[in-house]
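Researcher: Last one for today. Full complex below.
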Amino acid sequence: MLRDAWAIMTKDLRIEMRARVGLWQVLPFAAISLILFSFALGPKASTLAQGAAGMTWVGVLFATFLVVGRSQSLEMGTGVSEAQRLAGVDPAGMFLGKTAAVGIQLLAIELLLGLGAKLLLHFAIERFWILIVSSILATIGLAAVGTLYGALVAGARARETLLPMLVLPVLIPVLISAVRCWQAASVSSGLAIGEWLSILATFAVVYLAAGILLYGQVQESQ
Amino acid sequence: MTVHLEPAATSLALAFSLSNVVALDGAFPVLAGASVSGAMGTLTAIVGGNGAGKTSLLRTLAGLTAVTRGSAIVLGRDVSGGGSELVGRVGLLGHNTGLYDELSPRDNLRFLAKVTRSPKTAVDEALDAVGLSRRVGVTPLARLSAGQRRRAGLAAMVLRSPELWLLDEPHASLDPAAKDMVDHLIAQALRAGSTVVLTSHEPDLARSMSHALVEMAGGVVTAIHQGKGGIVDVA
Amino acid sequence: MKRHGLTITGAISAVTLVLTAILGIAITPPDVTQKEYARFLYLHPPMAWVAYLAFGVAALSSILYLWPRTRRPFFDYLALASVESGVLFTGLVLATGSMWAEPVWGTYWVWDARLTATALMFVMFLGYLAIRRMGGTAEQIARRGAIVALISSINVPIVHFSVLWWNTLHQGPSVLTPGLSSQGVHGAMAWTMLLSFVAFTTLFVWMILRRIRLEQLRSGVGVGVLDAAIAARVAEGDAVEVSA
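Model: Here's the assembly. Have a good evening.
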């Protein structure tokens, strides 16, 4: 399973490195959404700083759809998914590999959006470790849910609208928790984060497990 | 009449055995009660007009299509569920290669080698076997010609060397040299003990090379002729 | 036998619904603090119970469908029927809740954990119905639906806790205060409420029984059609041979 996951992840990342879709389409989109939010809420610095965490994560959520859509379109070439099945690629490995590749791309986007939030929205960073831990946990959840649902709707003609409709409600716990963690990270003390990290961790574990168990069935429904 | 074959008995001699198979595409029966079997290590050619059910038969043999009625036993496994019982043992090369368009043939084969636990050296061997040059080997598949992509698909089959080769019109749109190359690969696979099933539009060619010639029409097998199995190995 | 079950549940449901309406509107007294709005008590809680029951049933039957050993079309029909009536009742729960909350709480909506989880459940199961319209074979549709039902329902408790903490950790105690007066529930009110639970539960059972029956009839049509389609398909081949 892990070996297949590694092969899938490196394959996906290799394709993305070559095509640079992430760099040229997803990132500008996320950056523009950040700028739009600042026009909508600004220009008062304190308001922007207050909303910075929320704006960043809404931007990440939108970027998730683009990254997931791209990731699934790779597998939807004619006969590709069947060829992988016949070659004996483990569905759970496929799920983990694609989730990992999506997650790595999302982490890169979060890093750059976080930087943008710091520079443009006056987002203060006091406790860096909270930022790191919460982002990683949240990203696992986003990538796992995105990959699971992305594969489910990959064959649909209306997948661009179907995916957000299915996934956004599911991702609300991640949005709430990640934003709370980032807000906590911007002050030196005070805000508790135990509950939020536990939600992020639970969410990540639950949906990783769901994907590992169900991805084979998802593929057979394609 | 439904014939139930004992899996234990068939797995010794028969590579595949379909009996009165009905398979649906939506509500349409692409196979309407097809029966055919083939022995291990033989070449079976399926001929018939467009829409006769040739490709559907190959897909059923690959375990990719659920069987609505009848029984389908391939390599000793019941594949009527259309599930993944044959993981890794069957290779299917259709009109599309099943490879990633974004990757070069070489990267595709490297990926395949990783997931099938094949040695890395097998990648270059397979590319050489189908005559893909170094330059073509590193160009993304999307930018290659139809013939080159077909060779890449064949290279994937060579790399995987499955027990059962399913080739959907392997000679279509290939130049004479490439056709010879395909025949050579098939002969090699047979020599290595694999079973090969191919479809063809050219009955004469198919008859001359196969052990069994299967005629299909209207989703059923209409006739089976025994052939000489005289595939010409140019090498 | 099945016909009888359908008729009996339908009859029980109709009688209890009418009784609930009579008791709820004419017999029971208005509440001291909530006045006439307390009558929502015979509508809103039983429908909320049915909504959650429906999604519980949908999740359970989806697991049974996904598990290869228990895979039967019946469980798909059951899940579909439950989600459909569940969506209806969740919509009604949200509507009646808002109608009650405006005069009593002074607002149509609060970001309370239970409310938000219910609203999200509504949206997620609308997604279930949407994905079933994606097309494909009956088995593909059933499988996709079952997966969505399952992974949506495991999200409900997570949403519940995250919204609970999101709200309480931020705004202090929840706005939700006990709705009824301190005198407790009047005897007639308690009986009427109990009756309303029976009425809506049997209504739900009746609805899914009917829906399953419809789905079974729809799939049963296929058998004869398949034979005809096979015959036509084979004849297709004969025609080719004659002309050739």
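The helical segments of chain C are 2-27, 44-66, 73-105, 113-132, 138-153, 155-171, 187-220, 222-243. Chain C touches chain B through 16 residues (CB under 8 Å).
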